[in-house]
Design brief:
By secondary structure, this protein is mostly helical. The protein is about 50% helix and about 5% strand.
Amino acid sequence: MPSAYLSPAQVRATRFPRRRGGKGYDPAQVDAVVLKVADALSGRIVLHPDRIREVVFHEVPGGYDQKPVDEFLGRVEWQLRAGLVPPTNLGTADELLAVKLPKASGGYDRGEVDAFLKRAAAALAGTGRMTSTEVRHTRFSLTSGMRRGYRVQAVDALLDELEQELRFRGR
């Protein structure tokens, strides 16, 4: 039995080593399953644990090493069977507002993200309303030209964590 639950953000960040001089699992197929698992752990989709056990990948030269992928899938299957969404590091409004998002050209509009995070902080503090579904469907404009926004991947990871926290709280 694994000692800690994987968060959706941890699942999305999972990387597997490649096989050298042999065949391994098709990276595109594995990556697609990893994204489905992250969506299932965040509550976006329903993924029965048996589907994880039944998954079969094609083997291709230089693909992912099978052992780490199989170990990961075993851990995920266990977690899906347990049916638990773990808490996050976003227990309070202050913790959410303390997150420093990196800037990047072509990132999300900082004004839109900041306004959304203020509303989300109010929801965490109990003075506002926001649901995990609202977080999941949130979209931000991308900056262009000389304006720098927040790095897309960092904001998306924070939204995953916020959505997970709200689901953990039953919202």
